[in-house]
Amino acid sequence: MAPKRPEGAGAFPKPVESPVPKPPDPAQLYAALDLGTNSCRMLIAQPKGSQFHVVDSFSKSVQLGAGLERTGMLSRASMGRTIQALRICQQKIKRHKVKRMRLVATEACRRAKNADQFIKQVRRETGLQLEIIQPEEEARLAVISCAPLVSTKTEQLLVVDIGGGSTELVWIDLTAVPARERPRAIMRLHAGFHGVESPFVAAKVVDWISVPLGVATLRDQFRDVEDDAARFALMSWYFEENLAEFSPYQDEQARAGFQIVGTSGTVTTVAASHLGLKRYDRTKVDGLRMSSDEIDKVISGYLRLGPVGRRRDPRIGQDRQALIMSGSAILQALLRVWPTDRLSVADRGLREGLLYAQMSADGVLEDGLF
User: Fold this and answer.
1) Fewer CB within 10 Å, N or C, the chain?
2) How high does pLDDT run on average in the chain?
3) Which intervals of the chain are annotated as region Disordered (predicted)?
4) CATH of domain 136-350
């Protein structure tokens, strides 16, 4: 007798599919847009624990400040490029139905005589309302974006944000803050640098400065110097001269307990070169620690390559080769004054600071460990 055929045998098996990821609730989404002298960048994210999860992003070099040093005005071409990029940002915001957002412009718009007309044109053509923020707020947002990278062993912290049109430096004393609380103390600076009431022991902002020299503006100042090495040396010393009003400038700083956190394309490019990456990998770069000596070695390598070699280097490329040397000049000036074994590389900046500030103000971030 033949065995009984099981019921359903021969039927097509039902496929096991992974569930389609649920689209994020628009009510939980936040957008942050940073329009700088060189780049337009945006993040859309939702809070997740004490951090956030990025849902969508945008980044493009628009060179809004091209020619600004010479004319004091934003050019028609640079405004056109920027508005095209902002249209893409507007489409992403609309697609995700984002309601909570901050869209900020920095140094190029602070300095341009026609910035108000440009802001109105952006509103008219894209529907986006840009807000020109002041240097102190830009510095504060850069600081809180780096909070997760602050070591519990750090007693003196210098946060450096090298932008296209300006460089922000903030010196913070953490000696009074319990070691485990130090990263969180940096996050609490979202409420301001000065005398904010808090039940917690606060991080003390010793001094901050916004130097009106970034990778694009410093390069433009010395564009007429033909010799590559001479131009680099002049840029570095000129930037150091502009630090004279920063109160910790002359203080000798012991390497123990001292940390610099650097946030910029310059710092991440130097880190990628140090690691010998053939393709940029944020997971390997963000949070990497480098010493002054390791950074000097990379910068010396850039000088040996020269403009042609730097253009061919996949970590630098044609668009960034001139900017990497002005950024490296700034970085070298800082490390000449404050050598360190703990420069932490931050692949984060104003956008992340804007998101943290919005989410912290709304109380949607958990006060957990970073």
Assistant:
1) N
2) 88
3) 1-25
4) 3.30.420.150
Cβ atoms of 132 and 115 closer than 8 Å: yes
Closest to 100 (Cα-Cα) out of 347, 350, 370, 360: 360
Q: E strands within 111-182? A: 131-132, 156-162, 167-173
Nearest to 302 by CA among 327, 335, 338: 327
Axis-axis angle for helices 265-275, 292-312 (nearest 10): 90
Question: Confidence band (pLDDT; 50, 70, 90) for 16?
Answer: very low
The pLDDT assigned to 193 comes to: 73
List, for residues 126-170, the tens digit of each pLDDT value: 999 999 999 989 989 999 899 889 999 999 999 999 999 999 999
Please state the φ and ψ torsions of residue 27, each to the nearest 5 degrees: -65, -20
How many other C-beta atoms lie within 10 A of the C-beta of residue 17?
A: 6
Section 258-279 average pLDDT: 93
Residue 32 bridge partners (DSSP) = 43, 102
What gap in Å lies between CA 36 and CA 64, rounded to an integer?
Answer: 7
Residue 46 has a CB neighbour count (10 Å cut-off) of: 20
The fraction of the chain above a pLDDT of 90, given in percent, is: 66
Residue 279 to residues 171, 275, 313, 317: CA-CA distances in angstroms? Answer: 33, 11, 11, 12
pLDDT digits (tens, 9 = 90+) for 284-316: 999 999 999 999 999 999 999 999 999 999 888
Which tokens belong to 342? 């703990």
Of 366, 330, 339, 365, the closest CA to residue 216 belongs to 330
Choose the CATH number for 26-133 among 3.40.50.1000, 3.30.420.40, 3.10.320.10, 3.30.1370.10: 3.30.420.40
Give the pLDDT band of residue 322 (cuts 50, 70, 90): confident
The single residue listed with the structure tokens 């010479």 is 70
